[in-house]
């Protein structure tokens, strides 16, 4: 950093030194907390993944080398939990992307009640995961739930939902998508507002139908936003906890044993914090990979 | 004719979608005003009774506040959220000032150190973070609930962007008058970034009020419990189920945030759209 005219003074170095001191004084509280609550835990996690210990008595930790990672390979729990988590994320993304896109189109059009629409789809986003999970516990209740009520009104058979190993994961994905779709719509809306209007107008003059404009111009131009929303929703889903904790206890038959819930259970219930740390390292690496992909996508130049 | 029918069909589809988003809220709130026996009686067959309490009672709210610790939990959550907002704003604004308005050696290194924490998923750090905070003796304290999140990289970036947009001329006059960095920061810069500060404050409040996993592990004692944890344990199988109370609790836990959202929707939405950039 070469200094412009402002610093070209006789007392330049003294002033620079004073500025550096001031800058670090302004930064000190932030950096200190960052080191204590981000970097220290990171280092501890890396170390603890090679230990066998419990949170009740961390002093009695034993170094076990790669045993925790070997356990992850030898037992099925880690693989099953990760598979459930990825499936969960996949279903969430598959619902959120098209629905969020359509809602964004509505929000971007000259709809009369746009403000009301936006408010309603944002309500679930600002509601806590706990309240949403509690709400859906009742909505999905096999005997008294509102959704089964609607289904019987339509003449459809009642469903077991959360008590069925085939349906539970799908249902918590649907719930999470329901909660997050408003967020996706807002992100898509931001993308839509960046699309130059002249392109669509020119195409319309050339005789393209609305569908053709949407499919051949709008959708391709939003590819970057779409990738971005996919990444965000994936990372968000990989970190989901409340549905498994509050709705299914990871079951039935471990079908909804999401990875963060599995880590929580291993560390705080089973008191196997070393193994939980090893699982955390794997989750960290997965999310890290996706985040790096995101940064690369943001940097990449996408030309219209 | 078709030109008229098309928007009508679209509007109906939209109306149906909106009903799916809104009906669960209506159901929860209406159930919180129904007597215990009326709650599930009205589900099948579905009628307008399902969503409207015909003879509203306040019994659920009365027992909720009498029987449970919910008032305490609400108070704790309000303290934690307010504290977290205040401390986040102060720390992030100070750091953003240093990074945008002062030229100093090491700025790049500091920036990289902060940038890298963007990549760390909070949930994956749960176990070591618990050990660090308990090691500091902050287990079961309100400070322990908020302290790991105060130095928010997202908050810093949001403010840094806002600070960068301010013209240099702004502080030149003050500098010529002999003002130091502290005075420039407080009386020149901060008054010019009120909207970004409000946006960051709202998003921080939202995350703090709604956070669950961290309070669940770090604030277990009943006196320190936060609202989301209290709600979660209410519906748990260890307690005798009182559905009316659960619905009332969910309503109470959600209402403050919804009201705040309705009042300041624009800033909320802006903040969340920007928080998406963090991912």
Automatic annotation (TrEMBL), chain A:
Cellular localisation: Cell membrane
Major location (coarse): membrane
Residues of the ABC transmembrane type-1 domain: 82-294
GO CC terms of this entry: plasma membrane
Transmembrane segments: 21-40, 82-107, 119-139, 168-192, 213-238, 275-298
GO biological process: transmembrane transport
Stored InterPro entries: ABC_transporter_permease, MetI-like, MetI-like_sf
Keyword Transmembrane helix applies: yes
Oxidoreductase keyword on record: no
Topological type in the membrane: Multi-pass membrane protein
Keywords: Cell membrane, Membrane, Plasmid, Transmembrane, Transmembrane helix, Transport
PANTHER family: ABC TRANSPORTER PERMEASE PROTEIN, INNER MEMBRANE ABC TRANSPORTER PERMEASE PROTEIN YCJO
Similarity remark: Belongs to the binding-protein-dependent transport system permease family.
Protein name per the record: Sugar ABC transporter permease
Lineage of source species: Bacteria, Pseudomonadati, Pseudomonadota, Alphaproteobacteria, Rhodobacterales
TrEMBL record, chain B:
GO terms of biological process kind: transmembrane transport
Transmembrane helix as UniProt keyword: yes
Record localization: Cell inner membrane; Cell membrane
Domain ABC transmembrane type-1, first and last residues per copy: 74-264
Keyword DNA repair among UniProt keywords: no
The protein's assembly and partners: The complex is composed of two ATP-binding proteins (UgpC), two transmembrane proteins (UgpA and UgpE) and a solute-binding protein (UgpB).
Record-given protein name: sn-glycerol-3-phosphate transport system permease protein UgpE
Main location: membrane
Purpose: Part of the ABC transporter complex UgpBAEC involved in sn-glycerol-3-phosphate (G3P) import. Probably responsible for the translocation of the substrate across the membrane.
Cellular compartments per GO CC: plasma membrane
Source superkingdom: Bacteria
Family matches, as CDD domains: TM_PBP2
Database matches in Pfam families: BPD_transp_1
Native organism: Alloyangia sp. H15
Keywords tagged on the record: Cell inner membrane, Cell membrane, Membrane, Plasmid, Transmembrane, Transmembrane helix, Transport
Membrane-spanning intervals of the chain: 7-29, 73-97, 109-130, 142-163, 184-207, 246-264
Cited InterPro entries: MetI-like (IPR000515), MetI-like_sf (IPR035906)
Membrane topology: Multi-pass membrane protein
Family, per entry: Belongs to the binding-protein-dependent transport system permease family.
SUPFAM superfamilies on file: MetI-like
